[in-house]
Each structure stands twice: as structure tokens, then as C-alpha cells.
Amino acid sequence: MKILKFGGASISTVERIKNISGILKNYHEEQLVIVISAVGKTTNALEKVASAFFEGDKQTALNLFAELKKQHLSLLSELTEETESESSEQLINFFTEIEWLLHDQPIRNYDYYYDQIVCVGELLSSTIVSYYLNKQGIANGWIDVRDLFRTDNNFRDAHIDWSVTTQKVTQAITFLLNQNNIIITQGFIGATDENESTTLGREGSDYTAAVFANILNAASQTIWKDVPGVMNADPKQFPDARLIKELNYKEVIEMAYYGAQVIHPKTIKPLQNKSIPLYVKSFINPDAEGTCIHNNVIHNLPPIIVYKDKQVLVQLISKDFSFVGEHLTAEIYKIFGAIKTKPNLTQNTAISLMCVLDDHPQKVEEFALRASEYFDVQVQRDLRMLTIRHFTKELFDQLTTDKNILLRQQTAETIQVLMH
Ligand code: ASP
Ligand code: MG
Hints:
Elements (H helix, E strand, L loop, with lengths): L1 E5 L7 H12 L6 E5 L5 H13 L3 H23 L5 H18 L6 H9 L1 H16 L4 E3 L19 H16 L4 E5 L2 E3 L5 E3 L5 H12 L3 E6 L20 E3 H9 L10 H5 L5 E5 L8 E4 L9 E15 L7 H13 L6 E4 L3 E7 L2 H11 L3 E15 L3 H8 L4 E6 L3 E6 L1
Parallel strand pairs: 1-2, 1-7, 2-4, 3-4, 7-9, 8-10
Antiparallel strand pairs: 5-6, 9-10, 11-13, 11-14, 12-13, 14-16, 15-16
Helix pairs in contact: 2-3, 2-5, 3-4, 3-6, 4-6
The protein binds aspartic acid and magnesium ion.
The site of magnesium ion has 5 residues, from loops.
């Protein structure tokens, strides 16, 4: 069995959805579990619906949602050349559930409503793709992943309960594979034991696919993207970025951690734990080789360049010249724990501690406020972090000339600088 994941870009137009049937034909009679993201930028649009609702602007929320309804219905009717079908009924059921919610008054926290609203993106897209493929003679079964993926209620970043999920996935998928070789489901979403919808963190569909791969002992996982595979830099910023044909799990997990937009960082562990190879391939050019990620050691990797923007430097300076020893350091990490944030980089001096964080304004503010009990706090925003793995001095110099460097850290393999 193989796991395939199609991201938002790979289903953003009628042509691209049609293209999937071509890709699937190459798998012949194999058993496949296909994990689908929301269409194009639907998740961003749904985030706007959720904020409008939560701010009490019901009409804006409904108007924004009406736009999404129209887009999905027209995608379906263009694909199938039908105006009404079983599938459009199913879409309408999903729409209605959200509209009921949008007519309520918010009484719970934002993250809860976010998940109840945003989860619909994947339900809609997977319904459309499944119906279209069935019409094309590619027989498949559809399942609501919320019936399989049990999570806690840490809304917007829910954690999977592996034991319940393993049991449900194994049972349901075995049953469904008796009827069809292909199963279509959603990435990114799950549900609590009280049947509340949850999401696993933005771009979490890669991770969903990896959880399926792990539980079902898949032969491989393939992520279909709009790039040729994993590149050594973002091709939008570096036109001569190169494809890396082979990488190991460790390299990819580091790249993702430093901010490379390749694969969701949580994806690697479930695959690595069972040595399941991960392929990253282009849906535009499906016959091209792409990148294979596995367990073996790989030598001679090119320099890998990652930029992370919107970084914030928080400098904590001892108020009375006492050392930043274990006591103060522990207090700071307690604050990180309490606000559910981890620094991207830290550096100590005798009487100061520098922390680089992503710019989540509320969290940065709360961190600064709590830390000000122990330290004088200075916050500097709008910074950029450059990370180069397998760096060369020439490349480093080239990328940092004329830059104002605020912080620099280096190991044998990796160099990082924070700059304006
Ligand atoms: N649709 C979700 C997002 O855009 C999940 C995903 O694409 O993986 O974040
Ligand atoms: Mg997406």
C-alpha cells in the first residue's frame, strides 16, 4: 500500500484535478490512501471567515463564506458538467453546518471556532476529487478522517492520540480496502472524543499522510507539489536553486525546523520510525524523478539555504548585574512552556539572554511582559534569519555582505545569522 498526498496547489483548478487521474493511472491496481488538502488558498479564506465571525461581524463572515461556496460548486460543476449531483448535495450539507455555526454568537475561545470552521476546506475538496475520480472510472471510497484521527482538544495544534487512532485507522481502512483499492480522505483535520473538529497546525496534511503511512506500514509516501522536488533554496528567491534528488530524514527534519517550506516538520518522525521512504514529486511533471527521502547517509550535499522572515529578537538583560544562571534560564523556559512557544535561536552572555521568536504578536507581548519580572526587555521586530546548512565561506559572504548582523551562531554543519 502507498500513501499519496495532494496539496492545495495540485487541486486548485479544473485542469489540475483532471491531472490527478493521469497520475493515478500509473499506480495500476495498487492499494492507495490519498490524503487531500483544501483547494488552493481556501484555508486562508476560511481563516478570514473565522475571524469575522469571532469579531461579531456575522454578515462579513457569511459573505466571505458565500464566495467559497460558489467557488467549490462551480469547480464541481465544471469538472463533472453536472449542475446537481450526489456530490453537490454533500457539499451543501457541509455548507449548511458552517452556516448554522456562523449564525451563533461566539461563547468559546477563538481557536475552537477556528477549527470548527476551517476544517470544512478539506471536507469539500476531498468530496469533489473523490466524486470526480469515481465518475472517471477510478473507483474509490471516501472517508471522513475525523472519524479516524482522535486528537486532544488543543485546538489549532491538536495532538493525535496514537492508540485510538491506530485502532480506528486499521479497522476502517481494512474494511474499505475490501471494497475499493483507493481511499480518499482529508489531511490536516481530526476530532476530539466529544466529536469537536480539530486541526493539526497549518500545512498539516503532510503529517496526516505520514500518520497513515506509519499506522498502515505503507511501502512509501508521495507528496505531490508544484515544485520538482526538494530544492536547495527557494526557487522564487534563487532562480538557480537546484533539485536535491536524495536526502535523509535527518537533513529534512533540520531543514524544516530552520524554516524551509518543504514539508511539514512533524511529517518525518512517523516515517523515519518505520523506515518508510518519502517521495516529493511534481504534479506538473509526474514522470520526473523528484526527491527521495530515506534513512541512508548521503554525502556531498550542496549548501542548503533557508530564509525565515518576520523574526523578533527579544533581548533580556539582567536588572542588577546578576548572572543569567540556571535559575533565571529555567524561569524563561517556564514562560516559553506557559505560552506554548519555543525560540528559534537563543544565545547567552554573562548578564543577558537573547531569544529569537516567530512574530506572533500576542505571544511576543506576553513573553516580554512575563520576562520583564526578571529582566529589562528589549524587542526588535521585522528581522530575517538566514540559515545555511553545509555552508561555504564564499556563499556565506555573498549572502551577508552589506547586511547588519545582530546575532550569529555556527556549528560544523550549519551557520545562522539574524539580520535586518
Ligand atoms: N489546508 C491546510 C493549510 O493550508 C492544510 C495543508 O494544506 O496541509 O494549512
Ligand atoms: Mg495547503
